[in-house]
Specification:
elongated, 77 residues
């Protein structure tokens, strides 16, 4: 893990396309701004964990296959 010190209005670059800006520091809270291409998904850790959990549950669930009635009656035509 890389640990950096930054001040308000300073940035951290990840590659050439992603920057993290320090917006505000108040006590033990820091507001960050993330600038990334739209193709890069950015989530808070707790949201990312919830998405992973829901995806896992969906992958493990049994698929629901609807029942179809394929019988043809005279009234159909």
């Amino acid at each position: 893990m890389l640990i950096l010190s930054r001040k308000v209005n300073e940035k951290i670059m990840i590659g050439e396309d992603i920057s993290i800006s320090i917006i505000e520091i108040q006590g033990d809270h820091i507001r960050l701004g993330v600038d990334a291409p739209k193709a890069v998904k950015v989530f808070r850790q707790e949201v990312f964990d919830a998405i992973k959990s829901q995806n896992k549950a969906a992958a493990e669930s049994k698929p629901v296959i609807p029942e179809f009635n394929f019988s043809v009656t005279r009234e159909t035509f």
